Each structure stands twice: as structure tokens, then as C-alpha cells.
Amino acid sequence: MLKSRIATALVIAPLTLAAVFFLPPQAFALIMALIVLMAAWEWTAMMRLVSRSARTVYMLSVLFAIVVAQKVLPYYEQIIFAVAALWWLAATVLVMLYPRACALWCGRVSKGIVGFLVLVPTWAAMVYIRELDQGPWLIVYMFLMVWGADTGAYFAGKRFGKRKLMPHVSPAKSWAGIGGAALAVLLVSMITQQYLHFSQNLSFGIYILALVLLFVSVVGDLTESMFKRQCGIKDSGSILPGHGGIMDRIDSLTAAAPVFALCLILFGT
User: Fold this and answer.
1) Diameter over CA atoms, the chain
2) What does the DSSP 8-state code read for residue 245?
3) Structure confidence by residue, pLDDT tens digits, 227-239
4) Cα–Cα dist 22/27, whole Å
């Protein structure tokens, strides 16, 4: 499992970095849209949509929302990311109340709405950050935060993870894993801060930002785990050996990207 996970990461990481640094803006936006649409297809499994036509209609609806977002993003980016941040605050509560609050979101319509709140702002955030002056490097910083947290949590959890974080949602996650993830993101921030020209406000609070991104990335991971557990599936898909589906790979990013974009708007780069 670990070997296939590492092998897949060694393929995905260079391709992702090449897209971030070398693709023109429109091509990058298109690639991000394709990734989000694949994730939307997987999301339909968590909605318990069976027919291919129904799943296709939902995926096309997400595509339409992306097209609309592309038109309004230059004027309403702060609103889009603020709405996403509010959703992730609500998701935190839902995860903490699982399974008692299932009735609030377990219907197909509710899950469909959540899918829009999860996926469309992710696309918008990636495109917005990419077009900033330091856009590619800011995306790399965010990736390092998310991947570093995932790696730190994995190894710390394996070694010390006796006390579980939320066993009803994700039995594999532990408090020791959270500690390892926190150390990883703080280390990433300490190393990268000198290379990224953050504004004075953001530079002063870079470690707070790291912990905020860690928090929301964990919530993103737990939220997808909650949805999968409710509908009885282990992985969102099988396209990525060792990782599962696209949603399994980007679940943390769906929360981290719009929150990071909102922080960049509020505090500057």
C-alpha cells in the first residue's frame, strides 16, 4: 500500500508542478476544471446516484457552475471564498456531531449542494492564486502545507497513534497524527517564509496561517470520510493506486485552497 502510494505520488507531483509553473492561465484553468469534474463524478457515488445519465447531469451542472464562476471571479472572488469558508465552518460542526446530524445532509439534494460548495470554490481558488504575482510559488507553498501535514500525520499516527481523533468518522486518524501534522506545517512555514515575499501582516502571522490551513485541511479530509462512511464506501474511486480516487487525493485541498485564497485577499501577499 505504501509503495503504491509513493509511486503514484512520484508520478503526480512532477506533473502537477509542471502544470502550475509552465501552463498558460487558460490551460491551467482547464486542467483544474477537468480534475474538479472527475471529482464531481466521484461525488455522485456519495450521492448514491446510480444511472450514468444522472451522474453526467450532475457533472455538467458543476461544469456550468465553473463557467459562471470564471465570469464572476474577478468581481466576486472574496464572496466566493467567504462562502466556502463559512461552509467549512459548518462542516466542522457536522463532523463533530456525526452521526447525530446525518439527517441534515444525507439526502441526495443536500449532498448535491454540498458538492458544489466543495468543488467549485476549489477550482476558483486554484485559478485565483495561480494568477497572483507569486501565484505558482504560493500554490507550491499550499501543496507543501497539505502534503506535509498528510505525511506528518501518517508517520506520527503510525508510530504513536493510540488515541483516536474521531473514530466514528475516520478510525485511522489520531491525535498523535495531528501533532505530527502540526510540526510538519510549522517546519514548512519556517523554511519557505524566507523565499516567499508575503506582506508584513501575513509574514507576521505565517505560523498562525499554517495552523489555520492545517485545521481546515483536516476538516476537509474528515468531511469526505464522513460522507463515504455514511454511504458505505471506502474510497471515492480507484483511479489513483494507493490513494483511491481524485476526491481522496484532493479532499484536504478542497478546504485549504479557498481558505488560503481568502487569507491572501484579506491580508495580502
Assistant:
1) 52
2) S
3) 999 988 888 887 7
4) 10
CA distance 177 to 199: 31
pLDDT tens per residue across span 78-114: 999 999 999 999 999 999 999 998 988 999 999 999 9
Long-range pairs for 210-213: beta carbons < 8 A, 24 or more residues apart: 210/145, 210/185, 210/186, 211/182, 211/185, 211/186, 212/259, 212/263, 213/142, 213/145, 213/146, 213/149, 213/185, 213/256, 213/259, 213/260
Per-residue CA distances from 193 to 33, 38, 224 (Å) = 30, 33, 31
Report residue 210 as a C-alpha cell: 499554517
Cα atoms found within 13 Å of the Cα of residue 145, Cβ hemisphere only: 31
Helix (H, G, I), strand (E, B) or coil at 160: helix
- Give the helix ranges, DSSP H, for the chain: 2-22, 25-46, 52-97, 108-130, 135-160, 175-192, 200-204, 206-231, 246-267
R_g of the chain computed on alpha carbons? 18
Residue closest to 114 by CA, chosen among 243, 224, 232: 224
Output the DSSP codes for 102-131. Answer: GGGT-SHHHHHHHHHHHHHHHHHHHHHHHT
Q: What is the pTM of this model?
A: 0.93
Residue 164 pairs in a beta bridge with 174
Q: Report the 10 Å Cβ neighbour count for 193.
A: 16
Nearest by Cα to 230 from 108, 119, 52: 108
> Alpha-carbon distance 100 to 103, whole Å?
8
